[in-house]
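Protocol step 4 of 5: obtain the predicted structure for the target chain.
Materials: sequence only (see below). No template structures provided, no constraints applied. The aim of this step is simply to have a reference model before the mutagenesis design in step 5. Sequence pasted as it appears in the construct record:
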Amino acid sequence: MIRIDNEIVDKTTTRAKESQRRRMNYNFHPQLDDLLQRMLNAMEPGTYIRPHKHEYPDKTEVFMILRGKMIVIEFDDTGDIKDIELLDSTQGRWAVEIPPRTWHSLISLESGSVAYEIKNGPYNPIDDKNFAVWAPAENSPEAANFLNELTKRCKALLKMD
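Step 4 output (structure tokens):
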């Protein structure tokens, strides 16, 4: 039996806080070629997840909030926001499922935020994600500004302070 408890969530959160990328996965699947990928995804505010989609091969992705708050965004092909959801562990807004071929990203709103992520496998870094050309690369100088502007737009749409 695999257990998800405070100890493993806290360890993963600590590693995310120490990571230059401000996020960390903890995989429960024993091999990258498993057909069902299951992991904790700890994300700190300021981490930038470049909008992407999973196609060729098509993959469905599920995010369930365990702790904290995250925004999940779906985009159209030009980068306009198509749909948005606030995952909030204190408000019973638990999960979203992202269909294959859907541009998406996540934004962490609180330190210590952790989602349980489920995605079709296998994982292959060459074809796992197709990144949006309209969004800056993760380590580019434009990434921080893009994330800040996206966060402001999402908070406005969600009517958050």
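Step 4 remarks: The mean pLDDT is 96. The longest strand covers residues 36-43.
Proceed to step 5.
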